Amino acid sequence: MTSSEPEVGRAAGIITRGSAAVIDLVVVLLIMGGLYGGLVLVRLVYSPTAFSLPSLNAVFSTVVTFAVAVVYLTGCWTVSGSTAGAVTMGLRVIGRRSPRVSLLVGVLRAICCVLFPIGLLWVVVDRRRRSLQDIVFRTRVIYSRAAR
Q: Which residues form a coiled coil (predicted)?
């Protein structure tokens, strides 16, 4: 391992965590696209003669996107500690005394991450590379594997 490779177990920095967050955003948007496509197909199957594309409601779309993002993040963090973005970037979210976060911490952390994503920027200021969500919920985001 060279000095430029991250040390396994070391707290992740803003670039790696930000990149993982962007990947996760793309995953959530793909899920939303799949849900919309499924809705279109269901409408087509049930009324092919009177078919029209469903109109998008901003409030409904926002609520569904929020719910999908929270469920996605919570599920990933509580089951494996890693989202698709975290796996890609070699990261994992761990609890204070456990290699994974509890369901309650996962849900609350996900809600805060979705509602207040700017909290990630605290990683730049914090000496231990913690986001505001990490500080509040006593979690850490660490490198789970060395870079190749």
A: none
- The identity of residue 99, as a single letter, is P
Structural domain contains residue 1: no
Question: In a 10 Å sphere around its CB, with 0-12 CB exposed, 13-18 middle and 19+ buried, how is residue 21 labelled?
Answer: middle
Residue tagged 């409408």 (tokens): 43
Mean pLDDT, the chain, whole residue set: 92
At 70-83, the pLDDT tens digits run 999 999 999 999 99
Please indicate, yes or no, if residue 67 is contained in any of the structural domains: yes
How many separate domains does the chain show? 1
* 7-37 confidence digits (pLDDT tens): 778 999 999 999 999 999 999 999 999 999 9
In a domain, 60, yes or no: yes
Output b/e per residue, 63-92; b: 16+ Cβ within 10 A: eebeebbbebbbebbbeebbbbbbbebbbb
